[in-house]
Amino acid sequence: MFRNSALLFLLFIFSALPASAQVNDNFSDGDFTVGQVWTGNDTDFTVNASKQLQLNSSGQDTSYLITPNTSSMNNCEWKFWIRLNFSPSASNNAKVYLVSNVPDLNQALNGYYLQFGEALANDQVELFRQTGTASTSVCRGTTLIASAFTIGVRVTRDNAGLWKLFIDPNGGSNYALEASGTDNTYTSTNYFGVKCYYTTINSTKFYFDDFYVNVDNTPPAIDSINVIDQNRIAVFFNEPVDTTTAQVLANYSANNGLGTPDSAKHSSSNSTQVNLHFANVLQDGIINTLTVTNVQDLSGNAIVSAQGTFFYYIIKNYDVLINEMMVDESPAVSLPSYEYVELYNTTNLPLKLGGWKIQVGSNTKVIPSVTIQPDSFVVLTSTTGAPNFTGIPVVGVTSFPALTNTGNTVTLKTPQDQVISSVSYTDQWYQDPLKMDGGWSLEQVDPSNPCAGMDNWRASVNPLGGTPGRRNSVLASNADNSGPGVLRVSVIAPYDTVQVFFTEPIDSTTMMNPATYTIDNSVGNPIAVDPVGNDFMSVKLTLAAPLSTGIIYTINVANQIKDCAGNIIGTNNTAKFAIPQPCLPNDIVINEILTDPNAGGVDFVEVYNRSSKVIDLKTLNLCTQDTVTGILSSVDNISTDGYLIFPGDYLVLTANSTTVKSQYYTSNPNGFIDMPSIPSMNISDGVVVIADMGNTIIDKLIYNVSWQFPLLNSSKGVSLERIDYDRPTQDASNWHSAAQNVNATPGYKNSQYSTGDNGTDVIVTPEVFSPDNDGYNDVVNVSYGFDTPGFVANCTIFDSKGRLTRTLVRNELLGTSGAFSWDGITDTREKAAIGIYVIYFEVFDTKGTVKKYKRTCVLAGKL
Length: 863
Prior knowledge:
There is one protein chain. By secondary structure, the chain is mainly β. Helix content is about 0%, strand content about 40%. It has two helices and 62 strands. Strands 2, 4, 5, 7, 12, 13, 14 and 16 form an eight-stranded antiparallel β-sheet that branches. A seven-stranded antiparallel β-sheet has the order 3-6-15-8-9-10-11, with no helix packed on it. A six-stranded mixed β-sheet has the order 31-30-25-24-34-35, with no helix packed on it. The longest helix has 7 residues, at about 655-665. About 45% of the residues are buried.
């Protein structure tokens, strides 16, 4: 259904934790006198609101703090953060003692320290050895710290006495090697500490944090492997690794025919990352194993053998499904009262969804980092709601988009906006009126049939109201074994583009070939194809030249087209279309209405094209009218994306065609338009109007419930049908209740349809009628035809004994031809008795011409 694009996933491999550090303090407890205990000039320091160790003294002085550290100096590592909020000088600088044999840093001592600040303008971090009171430089960095600075510092010493100085000039932990030197004078330590030299103005401007001292005897481990593309991966270690050993090709090997990489580059921006390139491509969906040997950390510890797995994967349609939705959370049954959307991973691979998007209508939000395991679920909800769902995978989405109770479209997209799953629901999908009021989730029945719409969704039957993070309570087999079909074609001005609509969502990868579509009358194949998302139920085709007026075209769609279940298009693969013509009054007429639907049902209006034109319904509105002011209201466009109605076509306008088709038979299931809304129709009486965009009325019906057949036990669920679409809309005798065996005929010829034969003078048909509402000869038609206009008519019906039964027409101006219908009901609204009746039809004009006709008919019935 949806267009594919490459999306690569990570597989994280976690290593063992390193050994405990000898010094490890980030001052998060707000105190430096407990836990990791610091002593010295302790009244001169504080832990500030940012949880940093800060000098808090006054005047000009020297202050220090020390903490015990007896770790070995072989393969030792020191890390910390430092900020001096001033330009260092000879009298304003800091020393961090990595090694000291005595606790008083103001006395003579043996050890090593880093100095931050000096008398020169090109200050850099420098490592010194101190013997007594004399200092000797070991190595000097390159980052300038002559003005206020914030940096991250890392120092290592191996068991041969090689010191390395690393700096992150941005104050983070992305350290870069700046200097190294060998000094093996001292090999043991007792204390670690800081020392500040300051004048009054800088007595509070020294900051320290994140002290860490540890002996590193552990080799690096693989932290994660990131697949970059089909030939490249990035290996991340749990600590910085040595560049020389990291770039030895023989230190890496992968299975599945990948072998040794042909390139290994240590990242210059991330010392834990090594980028590998393989000559052979990674196969889609295959899990590979990388083996690493002999790569060393900065302390010289080498990996003996470490392994991590990775895979290259192109995300495909429906790999992750929208599987359950709580769209109306109140009143809650037993679940937390929050809306949610449950996602289901249909693959056998863990998929990382960070950066994906959840879209409801036009509101799109980004999903935070989360991995959804194979054949498993994750629940998306608001950040407020997430803590209330316990024991299941759940992630809070900032400003989680609201799920409309009555219906909307929910779409899951990749960061590249590839649509993976899309569901356009309505509240009819509950298929249980008792659960539509809230607290029950909508659950998918069969995940292998994700495009079936309402047929594959139900209200949850779990007593809690839903099954977030677990198998759906309605889970069952509901396979899609039928192929899609072409529903219709619309044309788009300037008529060089057509839009083909299908009966169900299509796999968009099968829609892309222009050769799939062939149009007759020398049009041929389109020159461009554009599938329409998010549901991919249509495709726009750009033609080489505009269509011609007055020609009816036919498109043929080849069997390359498949639905999302893989079924190919069947024989229903053609549709006709043409450039539409303007709609004039009475070209389109109202042919049937349902104003009092059954329980769970919806209203509908059926229209009929009685003209010889192809008309585009996007130019028409369905509305109602104030009969006093004449103002149109509740104006709803019939079809915003275009809908061609051909001569002789019936079309049903409703808010939910699925419901109408579930309650009534139709021989034309494609003859329906689902409008977002239709004007509310009163049961007793009302006005239905078809109007164009300029508010010109095309057809109008002012109906009344008294038009229903009076002998019905109930007119609920029974439509009013037009007897003859060529007779006037407002002729009450031209409307009748639908036959009882159908109750409505949406999308096809009315059960009460009858033309009457408009011949010379007056004709009565049929001669025998039976007004039992069975859909067969329920009315008798009195048809007339005159050579000249201007006659006024009276039509009266008498029984065989000459008694008045029904006054059908009184002083009505006639056209040259037409008809009236009698439904067998008397003037007292009772059913006339079985027998012979005389129809007395009298016409006259202003010239004094009078014509009188007597015709007979038989009212029959079942004995």
